[in-house]
Amino acid sequence: MPQFPEQASTNWILSTFVYTVGAVAVLLVVVGLVFIDVGLVRRRNVLDTALQKIGAAMVGGLGTLLVGYPIWQWQFDQAFGVPDPFLQAMRDWWLGGAFTTTASRHIDPSALPEADVLQIFLVFFVTFTMATVALIHTGVVERIKAVPLYVMSFVVGAVLSPLVGYLCWGSLSPLTLRGTHDFDGVFPLYVTAGTFVLVLAWRVGPRLGAFGGVHRTGARPAAQNLSFVGIGTLLILLALPFVTLGSGYIVPDVGFFGISFTESGMGVVIINLVAAILGGAVVGLLLAHRRHEPTWAFLGPISGVVITGTLLDIGNAWQCLLIGALGPLVGLGTASLLRRIRIDDPKVVPLALGPGAVGAVLTGFLGWGTRTGGYIGLEGPYAVGVAHITPWWQLAGVGATMLVAGVPAFLMCLVFERFGGLRADAAEEVVGLDRARWGVENSSDDLDAAAAPTAAPAGAEPALPAASPLPAGHGESATITSV
């Protein structure tokens, strides 16, 4: 086979290393989500929660590895005038494609320059999907069945998240070329996951006792170890600088650009990221003390990052600090709205969809007129800076993402509700998913403690537990008697 040693230039190898670190860092985000969920669920569901999350992430990543990545590459084949761009992207980039299975030194740079970089970017996309799916699972822990979760995870990885990326994330995506701007994957990750969870949590229904209703013990869902939430948050914050640098172009001897080919710099992006983290952290800490809800202290920094995700490459540190400080407030407002309409998701929609959507629109105002889109070396409708950021195109990106994620989520829910159901059986939820599904019991939790009989007076018969309400379908009407 012919050899192309220019594919192994030092500049491209260094870029490959940056994207490799970014891909691995996204896996650290998944680890952080595992810790957060394990800390917030009942002890009786810890094993099942961790297993489902890791399993769903793997299945979603497989979908992207098999056929998802070519959907994103489609935009580049269109811009470069490749015949039958979608089919050619599939032939080149599916798991058995020419570009996926051929070493870079055997790929002609005229057909695919920086082959190693784009091959590693495939892995970055896979791990990105894994984080998206792990976030979706966070919104329906302790009650969703495994099969629907895994099937939905595959569809998200194979189609939905890459399709949102094709529309909104990339310098040659259709909406980017009109003025929609993203940097840190807010549309394909946060808004996609948040929208999917909004639909899924609505259809699955609330956890037992989530809104004051009672089941066997009369207790609300109680976190088993909040310190794990702090550990998970720190792991995510550790990963974010490397993930953020992976969300842009490194052009040797020219500079660093956002994924929309917006002018930026590595140092500026990291400074903006830290400012956003600290803004969200301080306001989250204030909310935690004011409301006596410690989770806001842990999750406030994450909401600050999400709300500034579209701004990090084009904003400045003061803007990111102040907008990041709005993150926990938007999250709190979103969570209050969800409680009002009785949707049980205190994490994903409040931290991903609410701040992600609000931050995207705010970026439209703060970055109004900033040039975006295009690709270096192209001209005409694909030239660098061909579009300008506007609030309405940011809003269009939010709307398109919610449609792409929300409509399929609703349709899949209807299918699973018709054939087998989405939710675990009520009896499984009462006894605990670890014991019901895996025959393992980690330890007793607050519910077991509440269910323990109190000491009866001498000579008295111990009282039998009364029947208590359990969810039927969405968790509100059936009853079962504890024995």
Task: Describe it.
The chain is mostly helical. It has one domain: Orthogonal Bundle (Ammonium transporter fold), CATH 1.10.3430.10. It is built from 16 helices and six strands. A two-stranded antiparallel ribbon has the order 1-2. Strands 3-4 form a two-stranded antiparallel sheet. The protein has a two-stranded antiparallel sheet with strand order 5-6. Strand 5 (468-470) and strand 6 (478-480) form a beta hairpin. The longest helix is centred in the N-terminal third of the chain and has 34 residues, at 46-79. Residues 445-483 have low confidence and may be disordered.
Which fold name is given in CATH as the topology? Ammonium transporter fold
Number of strands: 6
Unreliable parts: 445-483
Within CATH, the superfamily carries the name Ammonium transporter AmtB like domains
CATH architect. name: Orthogonal Bundle
Q: What is the domain tally?
A: 1
The structural class is: mainly alpha
Return the string of H and E elements.
HHHHHHHHEEHHHHEEHHHHEE
Overall geometry comes to globular
Please give the oligomerization state of what you see. single chain
Domain Ammonium transporter AmtB-like: 20-439
Membrane topology: Multi-pass membrane protein
Organism: Pseudonocardia lutea
Pfam families: Ammonium_transp
